[in-house]
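Final report, Chapter 2: Outcomes

The project's central promise was a pipeline that accepts a single protein chain and returns its three-dimensional structure in a standardized token representation, suitable for archiving and comparison. That pipeline is now operational. To close this chapter, we reproduce one record exactly as it appears in the project archive, with the input sequence first and the structure output second.
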Amino acid sequence: MVAITVLLAATAATFFLDFGSGNIGQSAPQAAFTFDYDSEGSDSLAIEHRSGDSIQAGNLYITVSGASGASGANGQHDFTSIGAPAAGSDITAGSRVTFSEPSLDLSEATVTLNWKSPNSGKSIQLASWEAP
């Protein structure tokens, strides 16, 4: 009876903790980000890595929702396409990237910063910003 219970617990842990997918030891980076919104003139959003793990720029993207103005403003934007260094470059504490599009109104937008695992393709939200 005890052996069956242990076997069932181990099977459940393997399934729920995703040990069977080959991602053992891989985890999302731990980093803190701040957002600085400039509503005067440029209507831009600066995203700054404040502290924590360095992250390859190619593994980051932002998702914008609720913005109005430019076509294509809502949706997913690769971090490298909004002014970050090349995909293989590291984003470290002090790195700052500004998201700005012509005729874009972020005054009612929500922006999330996400990390995509290079091995599994799974994503996790690292930070988010909502318009004031």
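Archive annotation: DSSP finds one helix and nine strands in the chain.
This record, like all others produced under the grant, will remain available to the consortium after the project formally closes.
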